[in-house]
Amino acid sequence: MMQRRHLVIWGAGAVAAGTGLGWTLWRQPAADDVDDSFWKLRFDRPEGGELAFASLRGQVLVLNFWATWCPPCIKELPEFDRLQLAQAGRGVQVVGLAIDGLAPVREFLARQPLRFAIGLAGFEGTELSRRLGNDKGALPFTVVFDRQGRIRHRKLGQTQFDELTRWVDAL
Predict the structure, then answer these.
(1) Residue 133 gets which letter from DSSP?
(2) What are the b/e assignments for 3-36, b being 16+ CB within 10 Å?
(3) Is the pLDDT of residue 142 over 90?
(4) CA 66, 56, 60, 79 torsion: positive or negative?
């Protein structure tokens, strides 16, 4: 009798947990979708002006989160620069969001100019990277969006030019 009661209690708990999980998954967008609030984001640019994500909609977007104090970030930035040059004619836009302050980013860009758009996300950019799938909040983190605005690739850690090119060419 006691075992049967435990089974009923465990069964009811499992049903409740399953229902809660189902409700949560039903209410959340698919892991590869971003909502309209993402495309409304705006970031200051180190050279002045603003980077508005709305202007990037409809393009293949390669979004890289980086910082001046992150050695693997610094090492991979030339690969993103090379990708922007190679793919710009195909409607591909590389964007770097610096998880850093204005002064260090300006100093870095004076030493190593980049030909792709840079936005200043500050340390709050870590939360955005988490919303896009970076569960560790570490750097570097890259997300590739297709022309419909869906996430097609994510990578935590340093990327390589050939890898980036494969991802973009497949879209």
Answers:
(1) T
(2) eeeeeeeeeeeeeeeeeeeeeeeeeeeeeeebee
(3) yes
(4) negative
The pLDDT of residue 77 is above 90: yes
pLDDT attached to residue 40 = 96
What is the reported pLDDT for 1?
Answer: 56
Mean pLDDT of the residues in the chain: 86
Neighbours of 167 (CB within 10 A): 18
Query: What are the start-end ranges of the H helices in the chain?
Result: 2-27, 36-39, 71-87, 102-111, 125-131, 161-169
Residue with tokens 């560790």: 136
Whether the pTM exceeds 0.70: the reply is yes
Measured CA angle at 81 (ends 80, 83), to 5 deg:
60
Can you tell me whether residue 160 is helix, strand or coil?
coil
SS3 call for 118: strand
